[in-house]
């Protein structure tokens, strides 16, 4: 690569180009010699996440202006308390409980109870062996991807999507292919169909969705199933940590009941506000191809990715609280306040039917510029480009209603200012 540069260079007296270039190359060589961190990770860290960047900006603003004067809508970190029964179950666990290693898939009796619960809500019959306990949905997704991907396999994700998917897919040698949703932020079966090829291995869907709050209707899932009838090796990975956080009696269709070649990955992070406790599970469709081999692969992946097994205490807590969920009415009230703010300002959005995010159209195409205008008002939100869809901004309403109301004048000013400039 350096050859042509040297070939066309003709030194003249006093020309310092050569020593200068030698200096640069030596510096690069020296830097490489001491480079402990992988180049790939350095690249990831550079572009890592707008959410993280906003989080850091928030910490900076809070240190200057005080916590109460910064309106932070950047993180999907649940602030609604876990249900009382969850807290009671945590403290009531027997002190003599066994804390040693267990089967990598989790306690057999916990898997049995979870299988019964999943069978009830998805209207399919699962057995204990169809459940693999995991350290939250993030770990569950990695375990599934590790189990199914060979290098170069493609995974389709519907944009806008949860920012970590790309990292997770690449962790296991896969390639994430971003497929734009339709105008209403629902999967476009036509677009998915066009993207399918011999390398396609999985489609990740996420409903209720982060960042849009949309719930995918049954007819779209049925059409997805029809598409996949022609691709028996492709599985649907349904990422559902927000399943129980829905509004206005919205029903979330059963992926396991509609798509035979599917797995559900979920957690208690959002539904029980237990994000720090890292507990969730993978539920495998009883009709999936190569079911026995897949179960074996998921168990081995849990072990060799170093998770070993989901936390013992939290498995017991989850098993005792399967029908519990946080008070969704709190999120619903906040969603309605958010909606009324954006309706008044005149910014459009697809109404969130679940989760706790509102993905609003930026008043100008440059979503980052809009986020910066919001930061000037001490308001933190995440540019849509971080989710693979520029021109939008995500507001996470995991904050008190009073904060949402207090932020309203600043949001309005930011819109006015950005439209003037
Ligand atoms: N999937 C989606 C869509 C999410 O929004 C999140 C967390 O924000 C996760 C997965 C990861 O959740 P967990 O805490 O269970 O790993």
Please give a structural write-up.
It is a single chain. The strands form three sheets. The protein has a seven-stranded mixed β-sheet, sandwiched between helices. A three-stranded antiparallel β-sheet has the order 9-12-11. The two termini are 44 Å apart. α14 runs parallel beside α16 and α15 crosses α16 (401-420). The chain is 44% helix and 13% strand. It has two domains: 42-81 and 326-420, Aspartate Aminotransferase, domain 1 (Alpha-Beta Complex), CATH 3.90.1150.10; 93-320, Aspartate Aminotransferase, domain 2 (3-Layer(aba) Sandwich). It has 16 helices and twelve strands. It has 421 residues and is an alpha/beta fold. It is globular. Pyridoxal-5'-phosphate binds at residues 76, 136-138, 162, 206, 210, 239, 241, 267, 269, 275, 280.
Principal-axis shape: globular
Mean pLDDT across the residues is 93
Beta-strand residue percentage? 5-15%
The low-confidence runs, each spanning 5 or more residues with pLDDT under 50, are 1-7
Q: In the CATH hierarchy, what is the class of the largest domain?
A: Alpha Beta
Bound ligands: pyridoxal-5'-phosphate
Q: Please tally the helical runs, counting DSSP H or I stretches of 4 or more residues.
A: 16
Distance between the termini: 44 Å
Total count of strands: 12
Descriptive labels:
single chain; 421 residues; alpha/beta; Aspartate Aminotransferase, domain 1; Aspartate Aminotransferase, domain 2; 3-stranded antiparallel β-sheet; 16 helices; 44% helix; binds pyridoxal-5'-phosphate
């Amino acid at each position: 690569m350096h050859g042509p540069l040297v070939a066309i260079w003709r030194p003249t007296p006093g020309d310092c180009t050569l020593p200068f270039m030698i200096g640069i190359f030596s510096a690069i060589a020296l830097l490489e010699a001491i480079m402990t961190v992988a180049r790939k990770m350095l690249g990831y860290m550079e572009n890592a996440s707008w959410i993280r960047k906003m989080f850091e900006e928030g910490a900076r603003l809070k240190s200057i202006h005080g916590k109460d004067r910064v309106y932070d809508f950047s993180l999907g970190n649940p602030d609604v308390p876990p249900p009382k029964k969850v807290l009671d179950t945590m403290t009531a666990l027997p002190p003599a409980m066994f804390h040693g290693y267990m089967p990598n898939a989790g306690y057999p009796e916990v898997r049995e109870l979870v299988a019964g619960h999943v069978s009830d809500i998805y209207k399919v019959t699962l057995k204990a062996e169809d459940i693999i306990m995991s350290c939250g949905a993030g770990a569950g997704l990695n375990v599934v991807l590790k189990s199914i991907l060979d290098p170069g396999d493609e995974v389709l994700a519907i944009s806008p999507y949860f920012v970590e998917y790309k990292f997770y897919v690449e962790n296991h040698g896969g390639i994430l292919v971003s497929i734009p949703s339709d105008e209403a932020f629902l999967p476009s079966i036509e677009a998915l169909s066009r993207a399918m090829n011999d390398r396609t291995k999985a489609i990740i869907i996420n409903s209720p969705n982060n960042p849009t709050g949309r719930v995918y209707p049954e007819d779209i899932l049925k059409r997805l199933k029809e598409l996949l009838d022609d691709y028996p090796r492709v599985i649907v990975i349904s990422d559902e940590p927000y399943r129980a956080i829905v509004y206005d009696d919205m029903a979330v269709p059963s992926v396991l009941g509609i798509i035979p070649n599917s797995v559900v990955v979920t957690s208690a992070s959002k539904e029980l506000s237990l994000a720090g406790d890292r507990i969730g599970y993978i539920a495998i469709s009883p009709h999936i191809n190569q079911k026995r081999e897949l179960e074996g692969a998921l168990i081995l992946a849990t072990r060799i990715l170093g998770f070993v097994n989901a936390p013992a205490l939290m498995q017991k807590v989850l098993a005792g609280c399967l029908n519990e969920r946080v008070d969704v009415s709190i999120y619903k009230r906040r969603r309605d306040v958010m909606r009324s703010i954006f309706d008044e300002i005149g910014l459009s959005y697809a109404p969130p039917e679940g989760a706790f995010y509102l993905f609003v159209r930026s008043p100008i195409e440059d979503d980052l510029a809009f986020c910066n205008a919001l930061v000037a008002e001490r308001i933190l939100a995440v540019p849509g480009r971080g989710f693979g869809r520029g021109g939008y901004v995500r507001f996470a309403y995991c904050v008190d209603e009073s904060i949402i109301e207090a932020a309203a004048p600043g949001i309005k000013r930011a819109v006015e200012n950005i439209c003037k400039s």
